[in-house]
Amino acid sequence: MPGKTPRSNSNEPVENGVRNNKDVDMTDEKSSMKGKGKKSVKEGEDMTVVVPPSKSTKQSSQPPAADAEGDIAMDDTDKDQELEVKVDPVTQAITDIKSNFALLDRAVALFDSRFTLRALRSISSLRKRLTPEILSQVIAETFSPASASAAVAKQLLAAIGKGDVLLGRQSNSDMEIDSDSKTPKNGSKKENKDTIPEIDIFLAILIQVYLFDSKQFQSGAEFSKSLVDRIHTLNRRTLDSLSAKVYFYYELFCEQLAPLPPSPRSPIVAIRPTLLTALRTAVLRKDIDTQAAVIVLLLRNHLLTSHISQADLLVSHTQFPENAANTQVARFLYYLGRIRAIQLRYTEAHEHLTAATRKSPASNCALGFAQTATKLLLVVELLMGDIPERATFRASNMEQALRPYFLLVQAVRVGNLEDFETTIAEHADTFRRDGTYSLILRLRQNVIKTGIRMMSLSYSRISLRDICIRLHLGSEESAEYIVAKAIRDGVIEATLDREHGFMKSKEVGDVYATREPGEAFHDRIRACLGLHDESVKAMRFPMNQHRLELKNAQEAREREREMAKEIQDGDLDDDDLGGDFEGM
Amino acid sequence: MAERALQQIISQLKSHPNAPYNEASKLLSKAKIALLQLKVVTPSPSTPPSHLALATELYEAGALFSIRAKNAEAFTRYVSQLQPFYELADDAGSGSSSAEENRNKVTGLYLLLLLTQGRYAEFHSELEALSTRARGSEEIERDRYLGYPIKLERWLMEGSYDRVWKAMKSREVPSEEYGVFSEILTSQIRSEIASSSERAYPSLPISSTKSLLFLDSEGAVVDFARHRGWIIRDGQIFFPAAEGAEDGGDEKEISQMVIENALGYARELETIV
User: Fold this and answer.
1) Measured between CA atoms, how close is B16 to chain A, in angstroms?
2) Nearest 5°: phi and psi at A362?
3) B159–A contact, CB cutoff 8 A
4) Which of A198, A256, A358, B167 has a Cα at 20 to 30 A from A516?
């Protein structure tokens, strides 16, 4: 680096005045980079500073060095092109993207997916700023034309319609100097360092995001397809969480393509084999991230085309990884709950959906998911004969969306068939859009049951004719059969008198004399214990810490042995010994 | 060649809907060979539409024949063979009204079959798939063939057995093939009613049980009662009390459970502290 600045100075003497100005900027940039480095990295403070080659022969410090170099070179470009702008959003975006490369490098070097996840998390903040220009610039600066991954980079560029951009461009004017200054440095290393696949996949994901946001679904799907093929050839554990993301966008693109999902000719049916292969590979490689993501995608895929039995088979034949990412677990539980609800297995559905709503992020970033899951949960609760809590409908971010369901719950709670029918008719479109319509139609029997229960609670004796009139049932015979069924199903405690045509309620027993409270208590305690276990499992400990402890223990043991020896030799008094032990 | 043979067989099958199953199945297997020659046993998007229509017709005819012969397994097989054809037809968006009618007939029969076999989960999965088909679900309910099993299911679920009974006896049955299920449905609702009566009534007079169970005579009631192990005394039916003796054992079980739980908590607490 020291050799570089004077040289470029000599090349463009005219712009010197501006340059000084900019140089300040540049150092600012640099120091901010440094700050970031400090935050994320403990030992690597010299990361952003250009390191002498002898030091950088080993792992992680190497690529960031190149990054810093790229940064500075990039500033030079800006200087040439946009003289006036001080903090350029484009520059900022590029810097942000590049700062993720350092994270990816660390992830590879330390084999810790946490850094990858952090890089992925930054996508949401980058998302709005992505343009083909920024992307192409980053790609051009990251890949050198000589490296093996140049072909990949070309593909990436083609995908955003910038196929003509040259690779390895540091800046327009500095080209020569760059290659000059590079050769002595890199020459001592074996070769031009290759960009790690993680970085190019990360860039590819950014391109996917960009294509999706700009609604270029067709080209996005094609790009994703080639990307998926490429991922399949790479076998790197550090790629796992990245490839999960790639599949996710692949599915999203396909969902948006021409014959939209309910149609069996939709492209999502065609990508099932790809996803299934991905799943198989992921399972074989113990690639938990991809496995979880692909299972969820396949479920979504099947449910979109209402292939419920296939989805059910998929669930029964695969095992969802236990320690998958929380978001994937939440999604999986939601889809599972949906399948179970359709299959009338309400208890299971309820369990899954409750877990899904609890696992969904508390912040507003996944409000849509929380709402959808809650809607389904409400319907399932109703189907189970429970009345959802009023508080659910009061939450400010839910109130609006849950309004139709609120009316529905009211109708069911009172047991009024007429209200129920009008609510359904009025909000049929909403329910259909939410995919809960057919489930809601099943609620009719629950309304009737609730009605009967209310009547059994309020009257000790009521004629079947009255029941029939109150509940708007067809005939007295119907009422009789319905009440008999309700008694058998344990909805009410009563007996029927056929000769006189009335229903006689039994005295309600003391609930506290039954095992019910004990069971409820037991359930709660079990939930608490489970929570404790899970939080213990979720705790993170610093790597290799235990070795230190082991060492300490070993030392202690040695000391002990020495002491024992000393005791044997009779050098120590009992008093001394006691004190020593306490000290330990 | 094969195509013409196929057409012949289909028209033959259609003109003799009451032909014995043996003969029909012979014709059907001949037709299936023809299908093989045409390579349309399983459809692909490139299959010519005329062949698709032929294959669909043949499978539908086969399904109807097997249901008439009360061969549920063969029927299910035909239905699953038809599935991909229907999906392709959905795609094309075409389909004459008669093809649509046949399709609904077979699907309705399949729904009814699932219903009588108590496979409710599959019934509802199928229903869900139906409702996502282009048309609204109200239209499905209004459809003569599809609406019937859907209504029956709803009534069975809420317990309006008399309506099920009436629907089966009246003109509402969409076609003769649906009649095959009447017998199964009748015995099904009868046992449902019987099991709910056991819990709901302390006793029942024989005369009114007759109408309750939709039986023809009092003799049949007595037979039925014996079959279920009910006690008949003075023209009244008494239901044997199923529980009552269990209480003591239950009590014991509860205390045991409480002890077990408490011990479990203690153990867990120990691991935590």
Assistant:
1) 35
2) -75, -25
3) yes
4) A358
Tokens encoding B270: 């120990």
The chain-wide mean pLDDT, for chain A, equals 73
- Asked if B162 and A473 come within 8 Å (Cβ–Cβ), the reply is no
Per DSSP, the three-state class of A504 is strand
Full strand arrangement of the beta sheet holding A461-463: A461-463, A502-505, A494-497
Q: How far apart are CA A103 and CA A151, in angstroms?
A: 24
DSSP calls for A400-422: HHHHHHHHHHHHHHHT-HHHHHH
* Count of Cβ atoms closer than 10 Å to residue A185 Cβ: 18
Sign for the CA dihedral angle at A223, A225, A230, A234 comes to positive
- Give the HSE-up count for residue B243: Cα atoms under 13 Å, Cβ half-sphere: 7
When pLDDT is averaged across residues A100-127 and rounded to a whole number, the result is 79
Helix (H) or strand (E) holding A462: strand A461-463
- Amino acid in position A122: S
**DSSP calls for A285-349:** TT-HHHHHHHHHHHHHHHHHTT-HHHHHHHHHHS---TT--HHHHHHHHHHHHHHHHHTT-HHHH
Q: Which of A335, A440, A476, A485 to mutate to test the interface with B (most CBs of B within 10 A)?
A: A485
Express each pLDDT in A267-293 by its tens digit: 777 788 888 888 888 888 888 888 888
Please give the Cα distance from A405 to A393 (Å, whole number).
9
Query: Which of the residues B83, B154, B158, B257 would you substitute to probe the A interface, choosing the one with the greatest number of A C-beta atoms within 10 Å?
Result: B158
Amino acid at B69: A
CA distance A368 to A527: 27
Domain ranges of chain B: 1-86+101-116+134-152, 202-272
Mean pLDDT within B120-145: 71
Residue B236: its H or E element: strand B236-238
- Each residue's pLDDT tens digit, B136-162: 556 666 677 778 888 888 888 877 888
CB B228 within 8 A of CB B194: yes
Helix (H) or strand (E) holding B205: strand B203-205
ipTM value for the complex? 0.73
> Distance from first CA to last CA of chain B, Å, rounded?
83
Report the alpha-carbon distance of residue B186 to residue B161 in Å, rounded: 10
Contacting residues of A for B262, CB less than 8 Å apart:
none
CA–CA gap between residue A58 and residue B231 (Å, rounded): 90
What count of residues does chain B have? 273
Residue type, A206: L
Give the pair of three-digit tokens for residue A86.
């001080």
Q: Which of B168, B230, B140 has the alpha carbon at shortest distance from B194? A: B230
| Backbone φ, ψ for residue B236 (5° rounding) | -120, 150
Choose among A345, A484, A522: nearest Cβ to B261: A522
Q: What is the domain partition of chain A in residue ranges? A: 513-551
**B94: contact with A, CB 8 A cutoff:** no
Q: How many CA atoms lie within 13 A of A442 on its CB side?
A: 23
Rounded to an integer, what distance in angstroms lies between the CA atom of residue A99 and that of residue A67? 8
Nearest to A279 by CA among A335, A253, A317, A227: A317
The Cα of A425 is separated from the nearest Cα of chain B by a number of Å equal to 11
